[in-house]
């Protein structure tokens, strides 16, 4: 984390008034991320006139992360397009934006956060939008130059610089980040090898039936997919990575290695403060943590979902966009609960997809398809006891709402009608 402390594009004048918050202390948001910026916006839209302090350890103002592995990485989207708000928005809405500023501790009893320069900021309510961090590759040689992870905009810049025609790129991990970066590398003309420990890409997320679609997609675009691969070491010369040695003794040459083996919720601050941690910061449906004045949203929050009847943590853009609205309203005393059906999307080559719903690995009876799988124009449905748990539309658009309605209804469906493209989804 950066130890710089810089106030940027905000003011401090708003922190002294009571406003609708009914306190002289501001509402503090730790994590100047998409979620943090959306929470500040939601507080103002809800009529809160007290102080808001938004603190982040990056020097960039809040931005969206999906473009980092999609349009921005491909060079199709300008840098300015990734930001949540224009620079002047924070001052115009009396939001103190402190960038390049690491929060080092939270004192729940004193209602303060401590910064890297040892200064303290008092809060009336605190929201954690600290997100997640990439899991590091635990093998010798993983600290060499040319070993790349994707989380921040500068990471995307470094990866894009490594993608060149004829270059040899090895991607470790066939999850969403791994596959999207593989697609971007192929678009740049690089030779790409993807190493995955499982039998298929996205196997844990999608199951065998749909995972095969993505394996076929990448092979059709010239990617060398290697499954059951266990990385033993990253080889190199003079501190620069030159290849990957596998446990079976084989090697793959590389000019750069992109590691995409998952992310972990950034719970360090919350755990040290004594908040309840369970696969993230545990919250109720109001996104309230075990401390009544502290809330969490986005990747870091393991929130109780009223419809699912259990806690879930979703590592996708939609949660970072939508959960802060619920958190903001709850912080202001409203009886707001987050019950949106999870949603995410991905773009790879000529395949665009949207997924709505939530399925635990092995938590479904079967997968059924509607449309033409070989042509990559279809909808896949995950079912349990005749009910739709999730749906994924591939190159078919404007169907998310009816899929979401099927899921929320929790009714059993006629599978023959569900899989018949001639039957409108709204009629199923």
Task: Tell me about this structure.
The chain contains ten helices and 27 strands. The chain is of the alpha/beta class and 428 residues long. The chain has three domains: 6-133 and 264-331, FAD/NAD(P)-binding domain; 147-261, 3-Layer(bba) Sandwich (FAD/NAD(P)-binding domain), CATH 3.50.50; 350-427, FAD/NAD-linked reductase, C-terminal dimerisation domain (Enolase-like, domain 1, 2-Layer Sandwich). The protein has a six-stranded mixed beta sheet. It has a five-stranded parallel beta sheet with strand order 10-17-11-12-13, covered by helices on one side. Helix 1 (34-45) runs parallel beside helix 8 (317-331). It is globular, with a radius of gyration of 23 Å.
Spatial gap, N to C terminus? 51 Å
In CATH, the topology of the largest domain is named FAD/NAD(P)-binding domain
Helix content: 10-25%
In total, the number of strands is 27
Strand content: 25-35%
* Stretches with pLDDT under 50, minimum 5 residues: 1-23
CATH class of the largest domain: Alpha Beta
What's the shape?
globular
Task: Give the integer mean of the pLDDT values.
Answer: 93
Helix-strand makeup class: alpha/beta
Tell me the radius of gyration: 23 Å
What count of structural domains? 3
In the sheet with the most strands, the strands line up as 1-4-3-2-8-20
- Number of helix segments? 10
Q: For this structure, what is the CATH homologous superfamily of the largest domain?
A: FAD/NAD(P)-binding domain
Largest sheet: 6 strands, mixed
CATH architecture of the largest domain: 3-Layer(bba) Sandwich
């Amino acid at each position: 984390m950066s130890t710089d402390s810089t106030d940027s594009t905000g003011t401090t004048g708003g922190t002294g008034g009571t406003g609708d918050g009914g306190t002289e202390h501001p509402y503090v948001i730790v994590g100047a991320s998409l979620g943090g910026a959306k929470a500040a916006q939601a507080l103002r839209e809800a009529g809160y006139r007290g102080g808001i302090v938004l603190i982040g350890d990056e020097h960039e103002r809040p931005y969206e992360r999906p473009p980092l592995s999609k349009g921005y990485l491909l060079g199709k989207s300008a840098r300015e397009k990734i930001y949540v708000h224009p620079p002047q928005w924070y001052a115009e809405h009396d939001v103190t934006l402190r960038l390049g500023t690491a929060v080092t501790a939270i004192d729940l009893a004193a209602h303060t956060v401590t910064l890297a320069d040892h200064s303290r900021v008092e809060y009336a309510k605190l929201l954690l939008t600290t997100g997640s961090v990439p899991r590091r590759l635990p093998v010798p040689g993983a600290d060499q130059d040319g070993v790349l992870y994707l989380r921040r905009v500068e990471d995307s810049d470094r990866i894009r610089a490594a993608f060149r025609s004829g270059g040899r790129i090895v991607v470790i991990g066939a999850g969403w980040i791994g596959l999207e970066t593989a697609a971007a590398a192929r678009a740049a003309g690089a030779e790409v090898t993807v190493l995955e420990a499982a039998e298929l890409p996205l196997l844990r997320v999608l199951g065998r039936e749909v995972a095969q679609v993505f394996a076929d997609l990448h092979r059709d675009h010239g990617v060398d997919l290697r499954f059951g691969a266990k990385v033993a070491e990253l080889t190199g010369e003079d501190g620069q990575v030159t290849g990957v040695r596998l446990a079976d003794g084989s090697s793959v040459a590389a000019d750069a290695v992109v590691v995409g083996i998952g992310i972990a919720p950034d719970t360090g601050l919350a755990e040290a403060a004594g908040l309840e941690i369970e696969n993230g910061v545990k919250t109720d449906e109001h996104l309230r943590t075990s401390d009544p004045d502290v809330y969490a949203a986005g990747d870091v929050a393991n929130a109780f979902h009223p419809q699912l009847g259990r806690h879930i943590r979703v590592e996708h853009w939609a949660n970072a966009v939508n959960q802060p609205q619920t958190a903001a309203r709850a912080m202001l005393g409203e009886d707001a609960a987050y019950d949106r059906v999870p949603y995410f999307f991905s773009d790879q080559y000529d395949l665009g997809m949207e997924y709505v719903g939530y399925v635990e690995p092995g938590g479904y009876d079967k997968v059924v398809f509607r449309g033409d799988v070989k042509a990559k124009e279809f909808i896949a449905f995950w079912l349990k006891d005749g009910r739709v748990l999730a749906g994924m539309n591939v190159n078919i658009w404007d169907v998310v709402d009816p899929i979401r309605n099927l899921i929320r209804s929790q009714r059993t469906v006629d599978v023959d009608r569900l899989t018949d493209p001639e039957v409108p989804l709204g009629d199923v």
